[in-house]
């Protein structure tokens, strides 16, 4: 699997196990985002997201190594990191920690979901997918792809109608977990951001 390296950007996505749904009710979406803030915001900046009934897409940039080290929960983990002398070993340690944060997110959500709906077993497909984003144009096209997912899948006709993506959060002035100004700057300005979401782009 692609390692999650500090200061690199990734497209993170996953699907429900089998024909199950990840989100059955509105409150499920909001709970997932609460868990996301708890586990992922400390280790990554978020640029776009879209939660769909049976899958999700997230675009993140992993925080700097120094920031992530501050999030190491236990003294034992910090001590283990500090004892590492080879740079690649430290990078691997941090990469595994970030991946673990995502795993903790999915596990935490799954446990609550299973309890709520009297369900057993894995909710997500094992090993969430991640792809490195290596240039700004690809980054821009992925944001378009993520936001327009509900349109492409036929849930809504217009991108702004889907409530469980970051599209409307970027348009608003309210508090949001996404890096609004950086996303808009990637599209030059807000008008071009809107224009670029009128139809899907080819990736």
Give a description of the structure.
The protein has a single domain, classed as Transposase IS200-like (Alpha-Beta Plaits, 2-Layer Sandwich), CATH 3.30.70. Helix content is 45%, strand content 14%. It is built from 9 helices and 4 strands; from the N terminus they run E-H-E-E-H-H-H-E-H-H-H-H-H. A 4-stranded antiparallel beta sheet has the order 2-3-1-4. Helix 1 packs antiparallel against helix 4. It starts with 8 loop residues before the first strand and ends in an 8-residue tail after the last helix. 29% of the residues are buried. The model has no long low-confidence stretch (mean pLDDT 94).
Enumerate the spans where pLDDT stays under 50 for 5 or more consecutive residues: none
Label the overall shape.
Answer: globular
The N- to C-terminal Cα distance equals 21 Å
DSSP strand content: 5-15%
Number of helices: 9
| DSSP, total strands | 4
Q: Classify the helix fraction into a percent range.
A: 40-55%
The total number of structural domains is 1
What is the CATH level 1 assignment? Alpha Beta
CA radius of gyration is: 17 Å
CATH architecture, by name, is 2-Layer Sandwich
Largest beta-sheet details: 4 strands, antiparallel
How would you name the CATH homologous superfamily?
Transposase IS200-like
Structural class of the secondary structure composition?
alpha+beta
Order of helices and strands: EHEEHHHEHHHHH
């Amino acid at each position: 699997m692609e390692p999650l390296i500090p200061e690199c950007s990734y497209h993170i996505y996953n699907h429900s196990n089998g024909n199950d749904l990840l989100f059955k009710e509105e409150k499920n979406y909001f709970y997932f985002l609460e868990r996301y803030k708890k586990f992922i915001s400390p280790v990554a900046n978020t640029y776009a997201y879209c939660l769909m009934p049976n899958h999700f897409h997230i675009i993140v940039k992993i925080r700097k190594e120094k920031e992530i080290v501050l999030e190491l929960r236990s003294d034992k983990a910090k001590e283990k990191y500090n004892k590492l002398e080879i740079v690649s070993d430290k990078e691997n340690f941090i990469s595994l920690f970030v991946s673990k944060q995502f795993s903790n997110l999915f596990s935490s959500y799954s446990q609550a979901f299973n309890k709520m709906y009297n369900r057993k077993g894995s909710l997500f497909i094992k090993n969430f997918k991640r792809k490195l984003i290596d240039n700004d144009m690809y980054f821009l096209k992925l944001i378009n792809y993520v936001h327009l997912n509900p349109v492409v899948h036929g849930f809504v006709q217009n991108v702004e109608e889907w409530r469980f993506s970051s599209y409307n959060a970027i348009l608003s002035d309210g508090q949001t977990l996404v890096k609004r100004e950086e996303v808009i700057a990637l599209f030059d300005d807000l008008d071009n951001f809107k224009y670029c979401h009128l139809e899907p782009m080819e990736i």
